[in-house]
Amino acid sequence: QILVIAPHEGIVSSDTWLKCRKKLMANITFQNGRKARNTWLAGKVKCGKCGYALKVTRNPSGYEYLRCNKRSDHKGCPGCGTLRKVEFEQFIFTAMGEKFRDFKHLRGGEEKANPKLTAYQVELAQVEAEIEKLLDTLTGANATLLAYANRKIEELDTHRQKITKAIADLSVETISQQQINLLSGYLDDWENISFEDKRKATDGLISSISATSEYIKIERKI
Predict the structure, then answer these.
(1) Which residues contact 163 (CB under 8 A, 6 or more apart)?
(2) I want to staple 47 with a disulfide (CB 3.0 to 4.6 A). Which of 16, 19, 68, 161 is the partner?
(3) Range of 199's domain?
(4) Which CA distances in Å does 81 have to 74, 77, 191, 216?
(5) Is 53 part of any domain?
(6) Is 24 helix (H, G, I), strand (E, B) or coil?
(7) pLDDT above 60: residue 34
(8) What confidence tens digit (pLDDT) does each residue in 83-112 have?
(9) Residue 192 banded pLDDT, cuts 50, 70, 90
(10) How far apart are CA 19 and CA 115, in angstroms?
């Protein structure tokens, strides 16, 4: 990372630049060129065993489940267990509603660009990218490499949790009353809003979800 102090005035104001960066960083969990269709949790929910994304699959009877991508691709993970899509989505929606009710008494002012928040978001994306790279090396790794990768992943995950907590704390300070009202409207009319609006509401409240049939860990933005 290189920081250059330039003597000239920028073409784009710092306030506009940071606002744009903030919007871009808020979309880091979505894959470019691919649009989610099967669940509004796409891009947010990961296997609690290996950290890979969970995808929706359907059995012959028509029931939909969340399955670990890594297990589906090459059996490199024991899997997340049985997670029924409809029940899982309802659990997450209930958790979002309960948390938001606790938060709702807060009243933000006008949304402000926060350079520190943007920096944390960039750092979080870098840490998650490092974790993904290490996860990719585990398939077929020998015992020495496996031990090193697991130890490094634990260190990175600890750091990731600290960054996520810092982002959540700063997000509380910067969220505007308009955003609060928008999220409140989404949650109050959940059954009638569009799939994309459900995605927006989820992205406004949740950073990531780690899940197995035994536990669910939600990392929140507020």
Answers:
(1) 120, 123, 124, 127
(2) 68
(3) 15-39+96-220
(4) 16, 11, 28, 12
(5) no
(6) helix
(7) no
(8) 999 999 999 999 999 888 877 655 444 455
(9) very high
(10) 9
